[in-house]
Amino acid sequence: RVPSQEAQDEAFRLRVERAAEARIATERLVNEEMQTKAELAGLFAQIREMTLRSAGVTSAPPPTATSAADELARVKRAAEAEIESRKREFASLQADIGRENATLRRELASVRAKLNAKLGVGAATNAESESSPWAAEFSFASPASFAAVES
């Protein structure tokens, strides 16, 4: 026997309600757990302070990264600094390669001119055609194009 459309709709509605209630209960548990952890961290800090005071320590202990947020912020800053350093290194390498490329092009033009002079090749048959292996161009994108891709 096939259940009616109303029965199927009701069963679906109940499943959706149960799933929503389960999600809400899970969120409440997570929030309570976070609150409990924060309270425990506060209690442990108080216990540490009281222990240090009872041991006669009068100066404050050196600051430590006790919160996960402080540690994450520190790691993020370090990662961003590393990324910037690598970007600068890449730009420097790219500039060096560009300079070397220009030098090689000048040398190639000089060799090409000497070869053409020895072979007696005129300007009309110069090796600048698209099918010539001499016509190969090697270039790199500008650093600005990489910045545009990242954003």
Automatic annotation (TrEMBL):
Coiled-coil parts of chain: 69-96
Keywords for this protein: Coiled coil
Protein name listed in UniProt: Uncharacterized protein
